[in-house]
Amino acid sequence: KCDQGRRSLTCEQTLKASADGMLMRVSLRVLQRDNKAPPLARLDTVIAIRRQPKESP
């Protein structure tokens, strides 16, 4: 639920790591809660996942 003023909205977020764990697909959709219309907004992107270097003993 991510209402804006008088608008009843639903936000859907999806995170999915790639098979090698180096990338993450991020998807976000904003929908009207009371309407079966297409999304009002949609964002799809891929980001790199930074790994912390392992400490040497």
UniProtKB/TrEMBL annotation:
Type II secretion system protein GspI C-terminal domain mapped to chain residues: 1-47
Name of the molecule in the record: Proteinral secretion pathway protein I
GO cellular component: type II protein secretion system complex
Pfam families, sorted: T2SSI (PF02501)
A single GO BP: protein secretion by the type II secretion system
InterPro entries named in the record: T2SS_GspI_C
